Amino acid sequence: MGTERINLVADDIGGTQLRFAGAKYFYGNGAVGKIIGVKPTTDEDTAKNKLKLKTTDYKKYLVRLVAICAGNIAGIGNQSQRDKKFNITFYCHPDRADNAMLELPGKSVDRGAGAGRLTIQSVHRPRRVTYL
């Protein structure tokens, strides 16, 4: 069973509208979406005649962040498995990266389908590993 995905849009990045797809449980959360500057697409967004970039090009313009989450995971037997931490990699509007790191910790995300709620404990920007 995979994660349900939704189409997303990040506006006003150099006059360009960036569209990509992401996990519905994370990007579809209203509180998270306002903080990171990314929202689900609507009919109005699809009717606009703005430049759309390929799905791989959004990685050049949006900031990649990692949220470390933990929480009550339903259906798991012992306490050590319930307290397991999850890393959620997500993309954020470049102007809102600082806000995401400061405001997202403490927010709650519902994974849906009885999988339990996750609480974001911290957000950081991952190191870039380059091999020459």
Kindly describe this structure.
The chain has 132 residues and is of the alpha+beta class. The protein is built from six helices and seven strands. A four-stranded antiparallel sheet has the order 5-4-7-6. Strands 2-1-3 form a three-stranded antiparallel sheet. Strand 6 and strand 7 form a beta hairpin. The radius of gyration is 16 Å and the shape is globular. The model has no long low-confidence stretch (mean pLDDT 79).
Quick gist of this model?
This protein is an alpha+beta fold. The protein contains 6 helices and 7 strands, in the order E-E-H-H-E-H-H-E-H-E-H-E-E.
Write the layout of secondary structure elements.
Elements: E1 5-13, E2 16-23, H1 24-27, H2 30-36, E3 39-40, H3 43-47, H4 58-61, E4 63-73, H5 79-82, E5 86-92, H6 97-103, E6 108-110, E7 116-124
Antiparallel strand pairs: 1-2, 1-3, 4-5, 4-7, 6-7
**Which band does the percent of strand residues land in?**
35-45%
Strand order of the largest sheet: 5-4-7-6
Rough outline = globular
- Amount of helix: 10-25%
Low-confidence stretches: none
Q: Which structural class best describes the helix and strand composition?
A: alpha+beta
Largest sheet: 4 strands, antiparallel
Q: What's the gyration radius in Å?
A: 16 Å
- Please, what is the average pLDDT? 79
How many domains make up the coordinates? 2
Overall strand count = 7
Question: What letter string, H or E per element, gives the SSE order?
Answer: EEHHEHHEHEHEE
Number of helices: 6
